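thread: overnight batch results

M.L. [08:02]
morning all. the overnight job finished for the chain we discussed friday. pasting input first so we're all looking at the same thing
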Amino acid sequence: MGNYGSKYAYTIETDKIPTKYIIYKAISPSSKIYIGQTICGLTTRISQHKSEAKTTNKNRAFLSAIRKYGIENIKWEIIDYCNNEKDLDEKECHYIAKYDSYNNGYNETIGGDKGSKGFIYSLELREKMSISSGGEPFNVYSLDGQLINTYISQGICAKELNLNQKLISSCLRGKSYVHKGYIFIYCDEDLFELREIKLYKANKIKIPKHNTIFNVYDLRGNLLGNYSTTIECSNNIKVSPASISKCLCNTELQNNGYIFIYDDINTGKILDKIINKLNFSIFNVYEKKTGKYIKTFNNQKECCLELGIENNVIGSCLNKKISSHKGYYFIRANEDNKERLQELLNKKQYKNKIPKDLIKEVV
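M.L. [08:03]
and the structure it wrote out:
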């Protein structure tokens, strides 16, 4: 069909009888798409876009495209008609999802919001929009290959797991495969094939070919239990499956006071290695004036937040570049704390022997 005498060329891809409620599509020379709605006719709406791009400084993606390519080089299409404004909003959401113009086009919201970026949709509506637009189901795995859940809607997945929806989309498109300890793969793809071909090359992550039992230890190396899935373990010790997976894949040493290691012939060696590394990072804090033990910290960040001390200053104390800071001594847990503390106090001319009960004994 024609353009009804408009100076802007556009086509109509529907046989429905026209009404004032219109859904339109704009395609730039770069093939990126913008989906919009109007009740004033497409010719008028195109003129409004042209005027807004020319007279305002708004740096919106679609307006920038109009300035870059020129309004005459944008292809405009009426793709649907609606019966009322509610129908108009729902169909705008549908077509934005269908053409993926939020993630890979010029739309800056998922539609139905009259241009407001602060508009919030219910999870149910997002699911409905995703299904209606032919959303492809995908699986979410932990880093050790445990299936977390299957989703159709990227929006619901992002909401439930507290993730960034655009980065989920990036993982599913193959630009990356891992985001915050999760792997995102369409249901028709093979996880372990991707492990061999893509995941390891892109992210240096080794996923075991078969799910194996793993052990959980405290920071002293005491066995607390063993599990066959990260989800089962997470339910018992309140550490997220993603965090457990990071420890199992050796990207983290421990999480929330727990060590996670696969149960095999090398478990003992790996546990000793992790504990040695943790002992180097764990340190004790003593009061400078009396030598009284204050607390043991697992890391410098935790100490900074509690005592209000700068991270680099704690490091200088632990590395023996300076003796103390803000009335505290800092001594690594794997050192002889009694000897080191006596040495520090002697420097301050504390001649009396330190009471034994004031010194943290290291087991």
